[in-house]
UniProtKB/TrEMBL annotation:
This is Dynein heavy chain linker domain-containing protein. InterPro entries: DHC (IPR026983), Dynein_heavy_linker (IPR013602). GO terms for biological process: microtubule-based movement. It comes from Heterosigma akashiwo (Chromophytic alga). It comes from the Eukaryota. PANTHER family: DYNEIN HEAVY CHAIN (PTHR45703), DYNEINS HEAVY CHAIN (PTHR45703:SF37). Residues 1-105 form the Dynein heavy chain linker domain. One of its GO terms (cellular component) is dynein complex. GO terms for molecular function: dynein intermediate chain binding; dynein light intermediate chain binding.
Amino acid sequence: KLPARLRDWDAFKQLRQEVEDFQTVLPLLTELSKESIMDRHWEEVQRITSSEFEIGPDFKLETLLGINMVPHKDDIEEVTEGADKQAKILSQLEEIAEKWAGETF
């Protein structure tokens, strides 16, 4: 346990805030790393966060940590939830198409 006077230091307050922010961002990073996230979802995240970045082989975690996702947490969660739902629908459509492709009339 830290001494009480240490908690009054600006450096301590800043570090605590950064840790709390990272705890908020970590689940978003997990969601954004799913296969269901497509280019259109990344574009939406960029729009929400008023940022621009390239998704490609040189894409780095540092980029996401630098776009200040914390104030936009709820909106980004909506994007990732929508991506999961869209992926599920696409999978179901593919199953239906496969089933009907094998049918003859």
